[in-house]
Design brief:
The complex is a heterodimer of chains A (about 325) and B (about 350). Chain A has about 325 residues and is mainly β. Chain A has helices at about 155-165, 185-190, 205-215, 230-240, and strands spanning about 1-5, 10-20, 25, 35, 40-45, 50-55, 60, 70, 75-80, 80-85, 90-95, 95-100, 105-110, 115-120, 125-135, 140, 145-150, 175, 180, 195-205, 215-225, 245-250, 255, 275, 280-285, 295-300, 305-310, 315-320, 325. In chain A, helix 2 (about 185-190) runs parallel beside helix 3 (about 205-215). With about 350 residues, chain B is α/β, with parallel strands linked by helices. The two termini of chain B are about 40 Å apart. The chains are: A mainly beta (about 325), B alpha/beta (about 350). Chains A and B meet through strand 1 of A and helix 1, helix 2 and helix 4 of B.
């Protein structure tokens, strides 16, 4: 019996990443340089914080013309309310009124990947050719997202909420794997914490609909209902050394950059999509009773294929088209 | 010249091969391309190129001099070589004159007259488990139910889609020609006898217009192949002309109380008064015919000689065309109440 292969993890030897400074600055690498995730590609000065004070704001006169204030200094008044500098910074008058801006700070551009610099553009952006392990995300919605991957260790649904509180100090730029299952309560909690990219093994329909309605990028490693994340995937995302990942919704892929030499290098595109089913192959079972579960073929006879499910070691009989070979 | 006819469904591929001597062999693969499952590592063209190579190899056919024709829905995928003929299934059906074809798949229903997809209108609301299962089927398009309850769910989802587009449903099956049901949810290698009974009840329920209909089924899915072969070259038309879909029976849609006088070829007559909301089976095998005199408020008085079939003559007095009264719950009750009856009638004929 011939069955298609599904690549849950696939090594891609070439992908291009463009890393961009928020504004023009200085690029410190050259075309052809080899980089790793922590190499500084370039730098520029940026303002990280600002406070809008409005047009009625009255500034305290400064002794110099620089309009510079140290943290805690009185900057001025808006009506009866005094405004003290919340950080070292300066006051600027714009068309919309006064703005108190923090001192410029260095912004360092990091590649987040291992690879080779292929191109540099206008002291602003760097194109890096890298390699990745792409993880299959059969259900995905929302917009493409890249950021730091945070992996919860498959907590129960009750604990997942606690994890949000304890480990998510800032939601900005995070892709959070919440565990095997995502329900409505949990996604509402994630939304209240301003998280915009989530991953899970499976989700309820209402949680998925909530993600669509609230423009949350959501990826499910299996599907709908209560189906656990395949071990292979969980182990990989739990152990990746580089946490900067790309969630490519349109391509049903979570792209994780890896170093050139890695154990997944052999796991590329198969020669043929169909393979003859044999003992010891890892398969995904799609019959009604065990939908989505992963198991190992114990026996493959003319009468049927017998699979031992990883989750509970139960043996089930399953026939094409209700199974897929997992690689 | 040997010829291979391919039909690409949304969740499978099947093939019919005619060798030099005109001998027919066929092959079925219960997998089709899904962007969600394969796009991250395999293109649609690569997928179907492999599948067609596999089919050719499994049929023990030489590629040299082989003519390949293909039909499919919604498209005919590329396989890295030209087809001698390629036409979409809906276009192909427009060329059918002698009967009305109804293709039923988990996602779309179409005939010569109309096309309905799951994107049209509202669908039936199910419980959480059922909803999850249906959503998973839309991702894992190859998966096929293994429990009668799940098969019923898939069929009721299709019925729900038809029901929410009632005006279009009427247009779907308007003709007085025999109606032939076939499709991805009704392939002989996938369905069990239990599923078959459920499917029959749904087919009966999908024809909603009052009138008398001759229902047929093609669980081999040979019809599109023979139709395409005929259209490709008239030399192959004998396969289409000789092909006879299995006769399911004669359906009398007569909403409301109905009286029916059945006179058989043997000279026996029986008068029956059938109450509203019933599906009544009269055993009559496919070789036999009977004279029916039907009287009801909806149909008036109709006299017709009809043929039997697997289910004989079916007098259906449900108000299936009234969306306000005939809903999902009514249908489920009718399915459950009639499974035993259909089992008995199949055992008799």
């Amino acid at each position: 019996m011939y069955v298609p292969i599904i690549k849950k993890l696939i090594y891609k030897s070439q992908f291009l990443v463009e890393r961009v400074l928020p504004k023009e600055g200085q690029i410190s690498v050259s075309v052809g340089d080899q980089v790793d995730p922590s190499v500084k590609l370039g730098t520029c000065k940026v303002v990280y914080e600002m406070v809008k004070l409005g047009s009625k704001f009255k500034a305290v006169k400064q002794t110099d013309d620089l309009n510079h204030y140290v943290d805690g200094a009185l900057v001025g008044t808006a009506g009866r309310k005094k405004f003290f500098a919340p950080f070292n910074g300066h006051l600027e008058e714009t068309s919309e009124g006064f703005v108190f801006k923090a001192e410029d700070k260095d912004y360092w551009l990091l590649p987040g990947v291992w690879g080779e610099v292929k191109d540099i553009s206008n002291n602003r952006s760097v194109l890096v050719k890298s390699q990745s392990v792409d993880i299959h995300v059969p259900v995905a919605c929302g917009e493409q997202f890249s950021g730091e991957l945070v992996v919860f260790p498959n907590p129960s649904e009750m604990l997942a909420e606690q994890y949000f509180h304890n480990y998510i100090k800032s939601a900005a730029g995070k892709v959070v794997y919440v565990g095997n299952h995502l329900n409505l309560e949990l996604i509402e909690k994630a939304h209240s914490l301003k998280l915009t990219a989530l991953l899970a093994g499976s989700a309820t329909k209402d949680a998925y609909d909530y993600a669509v309605e609230n423009n949350i990028s959501l990826g499910l490693f299996v599907g709908f209902g209560k189906i656990n994340t395949p071990d292979k995937i969980y182990q990989f995302i739990n152990e990746v050394t580089n946490r900067y990942v790309f969630f490519l919704v349109e391509k049903n892929t979570l792209q994780i950059p890896v170093p050139t030499k890695n154990e997944y290098q052999q796991n590329g595109k198969p020669n043929k999509i169909l393979k003859y089913i044999r003992k010891d192959m890892e398969v995904q079972v799609l019959n009604s009773e065990n939908f989505g579960q992963i198991g190992t073929v114990d026996r493959a006879t003319k009468s049927g294929i017998f699979v031992k499910l990883h989750e509970n070691n139960q043996e089930v009989e399953v026939n094409p088209p209700n199974l897929l070979i997992i690689e | 010249m040997p010829i291979l006819s391919l039909k690409y469904g949304s969740s499978n591929v099947n093939a019919v091969y005619l060798d030099d001597k005109g001998e027919v062999s066929s092959y079925f693969l219960g997998y089709g391309y899904s962007k969600d499952l394969y796009a991250h590592f395999y293109s649609e063209q690569d997928f179907y190129t492999d599948v067609v190579d596999h089919i050719i190899s499994q049929l023990g056919v030489s590629k040299e001099g082989l003519i390949v024709i293909a039909t499919g829905f919604p498209n005919v995928p590329a396989i890295g070589q030209d087809y001698a003929s390629s036409v979409t299934l809906d276009e192909l059906f427009k060329k059918v004159n002698d009967f009305e074809v109804v293709s039923v798949s988990n996602g779309a229903v179409f005939t010569q007259n109309n096309y309905l997809s799951f994107h049209d209108g509202t669908k039936t609301k199910f419980g959480n488990m059922e909803t999850n299962y249906l959503l998973n089927l839309s991702v894992y398009n190859n998966a096929f139910p293994t429990r009668p309850s799940d098969y019923n769910l898939v069929m009721s989802n299709i019925w729900g889609m038809l029901n929410s587009n009632r005006e279009n449903t009427k247009e779907l099956m308007l003709n007085s020609k025999p109606i032939v049901f076939f499709g991805d949810v009704f392939y002989k290698d996938l369905i069990t006898p239990e599923f078959e009974k459920i499917a029959y009840l749904y087919f009966i329920s999908m024809v909603v217009n009052p009138g008398v209909f001759n229902l047929k089924i093609d669980d081999s899915n040979l019809l599109p192949h023979y139709l395409h072969l005929k259209n490709y070259n008239v030399e192959y038309s004998k396969y289409y002309e000789e092909f006879e879909p299995e006769i399911l029976g004669t359906l009398v849609n007569s909403p409301g109380e109905t009286s029916c006088l059945v006179s058989t070829e043997l000279g026996t007559s029986q008068l029956m008064d059938i109450k509203k909301n019933r599906i009544f089976f009269i055993p009559l095998d496919s070789g036999a015919s009977a004279r029916l005199v039907i009287k009801s408020q909806e149909l008036g008085s109709v006299e017709k000689t009809v043929k039997g079939g697997k289910l004989g003559v079916i007098i259906d007095t449900r108000p299936k065309h009234e969306i306000e009264t005939y809903d999902y719950n009514s249908l489920q009750m009718d399915i459950n109440n009639n499974l035993k009856n259909i089992h008995e009638i199949l055992a008799k004929l």
